[in-house]
Amino acid sequence: MNALVPLPVLLPLCATGLSLAFGTRLKQLQRLISVAVLTAVLGLSATLMIAADMRGPLTVHLGDFAPPLGITLVADRLSGLMLTVSSAVTLCVLVYSLGQGMADREEETPVAVFHPAYLILVAGVSCTFLAGDLVNLYVGFEIMLVASFVLLTLGGTGPRIRAGSTYVIISLFSSMLFLTAIAMTYAATGTANFAQLAGRLTGLPLGVQTLIQAMLLTVFAIKAAVFPLAAWLPDSYPTAPAPVTAVFAGLLTKVGVYCMLRTETLLFPGNRLGDLLMAAALASMVVGILGAVAQTDLKRLLSFTLISHIGYMVFGIGLATRDAYGGAIVYVAHHITVQTTLFLVAGLIERRSGTTELTRIGGLAKAAPLLAALFFVPAMNLAGIPPLSGFIGKLGLMRAGVADGGVWAWILVIGSAVTSLLTLYVMAKVWNLAFWRAAPPGQAATGTVLEADSDEDDDGDEGPDRIPGTGDEPVRPRHQPAGRAVAATLHGHAVTTTTKLPLPMTGATAATVALGLAFTVFAGPLTSYTDRAAAELIARAPYVQAVLGR
């Protein structure tokens, strides 16, 4: 069984080479390879999760080199659950992207880059979850960075390049800080292996321990978009294509949360920085949800709710009790699924109505009842309406806070309740504007957004008489697929009208909705599993013994 541990990383990397080899010449085969590999990764991840729960942590020392020389991969209960949920979500998003026809747009480029970049991203995420040392964790981050920059700038439009540049600058800064932290750790302990560090860090002076812990937390807080290190996110994610935004919002920030969970429990027990984490959690909740209240664009609104709900997970990490860790793990799994679903629905709304600006759309509950249902269920789940999984995760965290009884714990309990109510308000606002009210005057015909002139970097060509956002801009649709197609101007958007969204897009979105509901249906087994995962994290001994053999 241990031999299966590297496969979630190796399979996507090997498939990347095949995907690049086929390129645009055999597009159908390229797509088939991607879907087949991600399906296999999902099966492997579920197998590892079950095996880790039954047998304890599974380990592999690549090349049979023992720590600290070799590369160690470890699959325990936490990493097994994260792998399984992330694999299911990435498979659904891939199917969605195929329905959207994203890969077809790559015919303009020398090689079809979407599938290879996406597979590399999956490999990087898997490598991060399985990493048994700081160096391999850094490698996983860099793999994700390379792939995410390609996906974020797909199409080469002006706003995407600008957003991608910001994302890369922030990521490179965090990578430099991460490398510095790794160098300091190795210089102080002589190893970067997690299991060995668990025993050696405690022998360092308290100031050195705290400095290393603070540096690692800063790196992971940037990745997780914890306030005040989250300013880059609302401007970076909304510009990307819908499936890319969905997988970024659902997965990449949770990688940072996972790393915080792993290092705070395994390397730095004792919760020395617990008050700081809880202060950051409260700030993330409040600032994020207030930012969402102020937004009228759906993608930006969801980006701010993402920042806000990261605060719930950091709340659990800051409390540092078994119940708190269990609640945080439940909420991570829930949020990966629900946040991905909401961004996929935002993509469907954009294709249907030509925009995600809530002031310019309406009447979708009557015009597209299936789309309304696909939004309503995850929206209520995010708001924490009983008995959905969002309520279960929040209730677990709030009960842990009450049991703790500290001042910060009670403040976070109140902040969690207020944030949940404001989230419900935000979701109700989206529902009322986009779905429940009548369509506003001048709303574009239902259709599929192909390109936005505002996405083109045409600053030098507009001239004084071409003012962006007035509807005066020329429409230059890039594609005209078969079927009913009418070019229309919508504040610079070229729209191709259609009466039916692609089945793979709605099917993939429905699958993520069903996955979120499955967390509710199987809440008992899920919470039992996360409780065992939390106990394993606190114990530390099972992980250390599995890696070091003693």
From TrEMBL:
Pfam families membership: Proton_antipo_M (PF00361)
Domain NADH:quinone oxidoreductase/Mrp antiporter transmembrane span(s) in chain numbering: 131-418
Main localization, broad class: membrane
Keyword field: Cell membrane, Membrane, Transmembrane, Transmembrane helix
Transmembrane segments: 31-51, 81-99, 111-131, 137-155, 167-188, 208-233, 240-261, 273-294, 301-322, 328-349, 370-388, 408-428
Family: Belongs to the CPA3 antiporters (TC 2.A.63) subunit D family.
Protein name per the record: Na+/H+ antiporter subunit D
Organism: Streptomyces sanglieri
